[in-house]
Amino acid sequence: MDYRTSAFQEHRPKLYGIAYRMLRMKADAEDALQDAFLRWYETDVERVRNPEAWLTTTVAHVCIDRLRAQRAKREEYIGPWLPEPLIGNEPALPEHSSGSSDLSMAFLIMLERLAPTEQAAFLLHDVFDYDYPEISSALDKSQASVRQMVHRARQRVRRERRFPVSEEAHRRLLERFLAAFRTADRRTLLELLSNEATWTADGGGKTAAVREIVHGAESIATLLAGVGRRLEAYGDRVSFHFVPINGEMGIMSFLAGKPMLAMSLVTDGRQVSAGFVVVNPDKLARVRVDLSQRNDLHVTEVSPRSS
After folding, report:
1. Taken in order 142, 143, 144, 149, is the CA torsion positive or negative?
2. Residue 98's domain spans which residues?
3. Distance between terminal CA atoms of the chain?
4. How far is the C-alpha of 212 from the C-alpha of 223, rounded, in Å?
5. Span 241-284, pLDDT tens digits
């Protein structure tokens, strides 16, 4: 392995972490890294004093350009757009990251609302621990401008921040929620949803899914009870499993062994305040979960009457 390749591979996990958080699609993140790698191969590496800084700068700029180009496509998307879920233990969570909170669906959707350069500045500073002079150099912005961008993004994160919940409490609520969903138990669903809850489903026009964000416990409980009743028609061909989704335990459903949905819930341990469900088959096509190898992905099958 030559120097260029070995240097790139050394920093690849961090570069992929930046690219996925900015582009929120695995194939797009991989394409961004390939673009950066080609530029790295074409540069005079002997004049590069800090390969990590050079590569980080390049990936950030590639992602900013791609985000700007994608804005029009996102506006044409049918229904709400959600990130492509990371299932299991995938290479987007660097060791020094603050944890699953900066990879969660809720966090990534918050990033979606920021301008591309703001996303890069905030991620580099608050997630990947770069200092302001480094970010200023990487983004070709003044330090004052970078500080302002990070400050604005941080304020938005604080407005949408949720209280930390233990894995045990989160898992217990997931179990109760899934049991109610599978049995179309509207009353229990209503108890488990906060009054201000929201429900976002991404079908991309490829499969049945509500095309607007659903607001309020009453409307969401009615929707989910209806979906639960329709799923009963599939019988044993449908299975549900607890699987890590974007660093947090979530729920996946399979129809005849093929991924059908990936569900992430935002909760305080007592009630659900937001639900995100990816049912767009294009975003689930890359999911490869071997249910016979559950220890690898910590997949747990859920019986219809779990509680």
Report:
1. positive
2. 3-160
3. 53
4. 12
5. 999 999 899 999 999 889 999 999 999 989 999 999 999 999 99
State how far the Cα of 212 lies from the Cα of 111, in Å rounded to an integer: 20
CA atoms lying within 13 Å on the CB side of residue 11: 23
User: Which pLDDT does position 279 carry in this prediction?
Assistant: 96
Q: Residues 93, 193: one domain?
A: no
pTM value is 0.87
Q: 227 and 101 in one domain?
A: no
Is residue 307 one of the residues assigned to a domain?
A: no
Q: What CATH number did the domain enclosing 132 receive?
A: 1.20.140
- Same domain? 136 vs 205: no
Residues 77 and 150 in one domain: yes
